[in-house]
Structures are given as structure tokens and as C-alpha cells.
Amino acid sequence: MKRLRVGVIGCGYIAEEAHLPYFLSCPRAELVAVADTRNERLVAVREKFGVKNLYTDYHDMLKGDLIDAVSICVPNFLHSQVAVDASEAGKHVLCEKPMATSLDDADRMISAARKNNVKLMIGNSLRFLPNHILAREWVRKRKIGKVYFVRAQFASPGPYGAPGITSPFYFDSEKGGGVLFDAGAHLVDLLLWMFGDISKVHACVSAYKDEINKADDVASVSLKFENGMIGEIFASWVSIQNWHLMTDYNNLQILGSEGRIYSDFWGPYLHYFKEKSLVCRLKGMIKVTPVELDPKIPFAARNYAYEKEINSFVNCVVKDEEPLVTGEDGKRALKVIIDAYRSAEG
Q: What's this model's pTM, rounded to 2 decimal places?
């Protein structure tokens, strides 16, 4: 079986945590090249992951037939141009979320992929967690009746504590920085995937750190879905110490006319209560673990989601199937984020 030859563009935190290790472990993929403008990062990646082909200019990596696909892990404001260049070179594209920083750039990415008959997938890893997949299934089966409210909240270390995140773009909203572009992209995509399109957006964003003046590090967004549901999103960056204290705060809460679903943001647990269930009436909230993951392994569920995302991208290319998170999906999520920022400005 021919393996998909992949090059990773950008060797920062998300590449090292998710893309590089799981392309290496994917049986249908072969990690053959990396590109980064920082030579020291290339040397570090070669030493840690054993990648032989190193490029300081990704255009050189796109030439010829060394690779079949790219994984884009550069800062948000660079996503679009890199994706268009890759598509025009005939390479399939996995792009980190958010897919772009403007709707025009998102359209350019989608158009380039279609024109060149390549796959374009956006890296929203939360869709691959079994507890969220089960929550979506139960919502569609009306297990808790008619859903009328959802709240998604995420306290992320972001650039305040996660090791390896040093890029200044995080603090510049014009370059796609800010907590809504960062953590909010996960939450918006998850809610769109579960509940459908959003018709109204109202947001408040701020920065609680005095030195932050060009981006947001805390955001609250109120949503109304086209099906009449109401939703809320809360996202913030916190220090790594506070993040460890707030892991139980990261969750998805769904209220229905006949019960409630509570899904851990990073998995693996799903809790639910159904008023017509005798078991629930006797025991209260029931905890379900769709996939057992070792609680002693740090970030086991997060890494599970990354692995499934990478495998999904490889399989969609190899089998010539529609990506689970399409460019159109990425654009829908981007529009909600942009609408939220515009609302906050007003």
C-alpha cells in the first residue's frame, strides 16, 4: 500500500505536539519533510523526530514530487497564502484552525483546493473525541428531548503557560491573535457541528492582563441558532498553574426538555440525566466513558483526538473521501468568530 508523503510547514508548538508525532505513527503516512523559517527549529525537529528533508522556505518543499500533502502549522494570518500555494502545487492540505483571518482568504483557500482537485481539511480536533461524538448522536436522537440551551467553556493556557508557544502573533488581533481566534475556534466549530447554523451573535471581549492591548484574552459570546436554540461560549487564557486548577471548568453543557448532557471538553467522560430514566432517577447523573483512556497519562484524551484527526486526514486523501472538517465548515466557524469580534467593537 502506498503511503501518503507529508510535509509539515511550521514547527512550533502545535506541530510538535500533534502533527509531527502522529504523522510519524500513522501507518498510512510518511513524514518526509518539514519547513520553518527558523533554522534552530529545523535542527531541533530533525534531532527529535528524525526528519531528513529540511527547508527554510516552504516554496522549495512544494516543488517536484517529494510530498503529496502538507500540514499547515504557521501563525493564523499566514494560513491562507500557504494553503493556496500548496493547493496550486497539487498538494492536499490539512490546515490548523482557524482556517484564516478573513472570509475572503477562506474563499481563496476553498477555491484553490477545488480548482486543483485536492483535499482541504481544517484541524478541529475536538470532533474526534468519542464523548463529543456520542453527545452529538444523542442530541440528534433527542435522548434528552428538545435541546434549548448549550454552553461551551474553555480555559486554555494559550500563550500564557503552554511550553513552546512564543509567537507574538497571539497578541495581535490583526494577525489572527486573541482568545476567540485561538480557543474560540474549537468551541464554535463544535457547536456548529452539533447544532447547525448560527443566526445571531453578540459578544464581549477584553484583556485582563494590563500589558495586553492589541488582542483579547477573555471572551463571552451569546448565540442564537437557526433552529431557535440559545447558546453561550466562554473562553479565556490562563497561566498553566491556573489551568491545572480549572480543568473541570472545560466542558460542554447541553440542556433539553427532558434532561441534560455534560461532556468533558478534552474527554473522555460524558455525563447525562434523563428524567424518564429510572436509573437516572435513582442514581442521578450517569457517567459514560465511550473510550477508556489511562487517567495517569497527561493529556491522554487530547492526544487521542490529535491522532484521530491526523489519521482522518490521511484516510480521506488515500480513500478519496470528503474530509470530516471541510473548508466550508472552517469558513462557517470563521464567520461566527468574525461576527463576534464585530459585535464586541460595536
A: 0.94
Nearest to 58 by CA among 9, 108, 120, 104: 9
Per-residue model confidence as pLDDT tens digits over 218-254: 999 999 999 999 999 999 998 877 766 777 788 999 9
List of domains in the chain = 4-126+305-326 (3.40.50.720), 127-295+333-345 (3.30.360.10)
DSSP H or E run through 117? none
DSSP classification of residue 89:
T
**Residue 299, by phi and psi: left (phi above 0), alpha (psi -120 to 50) or beta?**
left
Q: What DSSP element (H or E) covers 284? A: none
Whole-Å CA distances, 253 to 39, 111, 131, 310, 339:
44, 36, 12, 27, 23
* Cell 484521530, located at residue: 308
Contact between 35 and 63 under an 8 Å Cβ cutoff? The reply is no
State how far the Cα of 87 lies from the Cα of 99, in Å rounded to an integer.
14
